[in-house]
């Protein structure tokens, strides 16, 4: 039997399997565009901007529809009502993690971000407990962020008001905050290890947001064995895990079971307590993956938001001016901003929220999955089905945010100029899978941005009207374009 015949038989079997699967689920899943055998709807979706494609499909099929990324069906939830109904009203049923082959390959179902079931529940619960013990949401971590913010100010002063790319420096502060929680240490901004870690994190997000990785996730059985950027991602993560393991080994040598210093110590103590439990989720592999999850997600999202935020402030100097006026009035020049100031700074608080809303950092969140057969509206979604929640459709809802394509802090202010909360603000997602570091991220954003604006005037190299804020990549994350600016001390 020649190769052509074997391939033909295999292809025919795959097509028959696909058609059977479609027939089996027909009448249960929501409607959607007709998929092609094997490739599904991949040609109907722009992998460079999935959100835009989903908006168009929602116009034809409504707020709940099905698309096929390859042979697997994915139910898309579009708009606030559908997303809220799933992630909040039926939070338990929609709390699974959908398949993400690129990262599933690396994490092996461990950690927090890409895990499900008992591993996810116990690891997440433990992580939240440790973060609280380490002072997240309290004065302890606030003091650390304030100290790191001043280190950032000193580093920015060394640019001597010359044009600079802020990417690296804006990542240093959140990186050191995270290092203090996980490793009980920080790095000087000139440290090569710090530079290497940050480069890995930025490159991983950029690669993960490309259309190539979208293709990998749709056809992992094929793309995995081809040359491409996924191999760079695997290599980067392996190097990150090697660094993490070195830190863990250092902690093991000096561990005091009665005096945990940081996240690693807490986890190692938990491992020791459960060492006779063969079913324990607290293993060395899970520790490495959990640290990688928390470390990468915490630094990547924060540094990208800061970088995008400064670009928007350069584009809108009138907004920057109002924030600086509020900082001068409430904080002054002789002390660091603190979290208590936020309640007296409604405009600044609105600007921070509007930055997050506008940049739409993780447009479609990460895929969820239903943990059991779920009746959702008039549909029956089988257990394990992937769920894609369009956060873009919530953050850009024109009923809640008039002119949503405009950057306007007024979206979070009432008629009296007071800060106005919105249930549509789902920048951290919602429900059971809401970002585990939300409290820390909110603290960092407010304190770092206000400290930068307290000490510097932001000077663009272009006329503000010529500044382009369109993301250069819009996949897993929205990545801002490259830019330079001058930090002018005040």
UniProtKB/TrEMBL annotation:
Family annotation (CDD domains): CYP2C-like
Recorded superkingdom: Eukaryota
Cross-referenced InterPro entries: Cyt_P450, Cyt_P450_CS, Cyt_P450_E_grp-I, Cyt_P450_sf, Cytochrome_P450_fam2
Main location: endoplasmic reticulum
Entry cofactors: heme
Signal peptide: 1-25
UniProt-recorded name of the protein: Cytochrome P450 2C21-like
Source species: Ceratotherium simum simum (Southern white rhinoceros)
Source taxonomy: Eukaryota, Metazoa, Chordata, Craniata, Vertebrata
């Amino acid at each position: 039997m020649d190769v052509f015949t074997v391939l033909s038989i295999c292809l025919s079997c795959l097509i028959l399997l696909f058609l059977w699967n479609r027939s089996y689920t027909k009448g249960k899943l929501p409607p959607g565009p007709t998929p092609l055998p094997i490739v599904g709807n991949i040609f109907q979706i722009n992998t460079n901007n999935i959100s835009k494609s989903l908006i168009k499909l929602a116009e034809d099929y409504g707020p709940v529809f099905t698309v096929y990324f390859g042979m697997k069906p994915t139910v898309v939830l579009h708009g606030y009502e559908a997303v809220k109904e799933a992630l909040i009203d039926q939070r338990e049923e929609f709390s699974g993690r959908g398949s993400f082959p690129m990262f599933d390959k690396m994490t092996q179902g461990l950690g927090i971000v890409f895990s499900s079931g008992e591993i996810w529940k116990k690891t997440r619960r433990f992580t939240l407990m440790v973060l609280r013990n380490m002072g997240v949401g309290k004065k302890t971590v606030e003091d650390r962020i304030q100290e790191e913010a001043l280190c950032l100010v000193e580093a920015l002063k060394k640019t001597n008001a010359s044009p600079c790319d802020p990417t690296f420096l804006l990542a240093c502060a959140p990186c050191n905050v995270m290092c203090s929680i996980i490793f009980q240490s920080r790095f000087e901004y000139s440290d090569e290890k710090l530079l290497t870690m940050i480069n890995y994190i930025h490159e991983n997000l950029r690669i993960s947001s490309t259309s190539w990785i979208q293709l990998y996730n749709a056809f992992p059985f094929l793309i995995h064995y081809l040359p491409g950027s996924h191999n760079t991602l695997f290599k980067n993560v392996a190097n990150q895990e090697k660094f993490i393991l070195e830190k863990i080994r250092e902690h093991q040598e000096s561990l005091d079971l009665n005096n945990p210093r940081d996240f690693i110590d807490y986890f190692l103590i938990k491992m020791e307590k459960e060492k006779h439990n063969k079913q324990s989720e607290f293993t060395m592999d899970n520790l490495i993956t959990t640290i990688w999850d928390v470390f990468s997600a915490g630094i990547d999202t924060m540094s990208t938001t800061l970088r995008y935020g400064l670009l928007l402030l350069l584009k809108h100097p009138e907004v920057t001016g109002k924030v600086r006026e509020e900082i001068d009035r409430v904080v002054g020049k002789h002390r660091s901003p603190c979290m208590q100031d936020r309640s007296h700074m409604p405009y600044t608080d609105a600007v921070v929220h509007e930055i997050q809303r506008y940049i739409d950092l993780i447009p479609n969140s990460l895929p969820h999955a239903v943990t059991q057969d779920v009746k959702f509206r008039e549909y029956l979604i089988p257990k394990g089905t992937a769920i894609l929640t369009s956060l873009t459709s919530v953050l850009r809802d024109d009923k809640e945010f008039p002119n949503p394509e405009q950057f306007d802090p007024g979206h979070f202010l009432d008629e009296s100029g007071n800060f106005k909360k919105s249930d549509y603000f789902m920048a951290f997602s919602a429900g059971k899978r809401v970002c585990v570091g939300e409290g820390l991220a909110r603290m960092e954003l407010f304190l770092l941005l206000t400290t930068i604006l307290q000490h510097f005037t932001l000077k663009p190299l272009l006329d503000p009207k010529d500044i382009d804020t369109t993301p250069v990549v819009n996949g897993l994350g929205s990545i801002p374009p490259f830019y330079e600016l001058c930090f002018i001390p005040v």
